[in-house]
Amino acid sequence: MGKKRNKRPSDQYRLPPKVVAAQRSAARVAAFRPRPVVPQRRVVLALAGLFLVCAGLASVLWFPAHSLRDDLRSGGTTVAARVVGVDDKPKFVEVRLVQGPDEGTRVRLSEYAGMLPDVRTGDSLLVTYDPEEPSRGLPRGWVTDPPANLPAYGTAAIALLCLALATAVALRRRWILRTWPSEPAAAADAVSPEQPRTKGKGLSKS
């Protein structure tokens, strides 16, 4: 059987050369370059929260509008209508249907991503509406060729910007904490490798 290796006492352990070199490099960086301000964790959380809020708002502006458009394309009824009321407070456009089975009915057009057509009282236009629920209606032109959903696009862009900023701040925070020691004493300890420790002083021979 082979000889048993003598285990090195734990009190004489030396760090590997690579670890010592890394410690020295980190200590030099800390000594010659002042430590930048560490971004607060709450900044990362705030940006992440803004991303979630903007993403939710973009979804609200996008999905209901496209769902209404698709429903009217598949089962809507198109008739002529005349604008009988327009107001900004609250914002609405009211029309009176002048054709079809619901002739004479007054309905308020649905908003498309918070937008309403730019019309005036007395204007005529084609309206596509849901026969089972006439209040769900849009101008015919918006059903066939809907306008650009600028509110949803803008909110989505803000959400992506918040996500990018949150990622950048989190990565910078991690880099600073890994590059600069948190305490000055840590830099001083990292300059010199750990020396072996002895349990006690030897007795001198007479």
From TrEMBL:
The chain crosses the membrane at residues 43-63, 150-171. The keyword Membrane applies. Keywords: Membrane, Transmembrane, Transmembrane helix. This is DUF3592 domain-containing protein. Residues 184-206 are annotated as: Disordered. It comes from the Bacteria. The lineage of its organism: Bacteria, Bacillati, Actinomycetota, Actinomycetes, Kitasatosporales. It comes from Streptomyces virens.
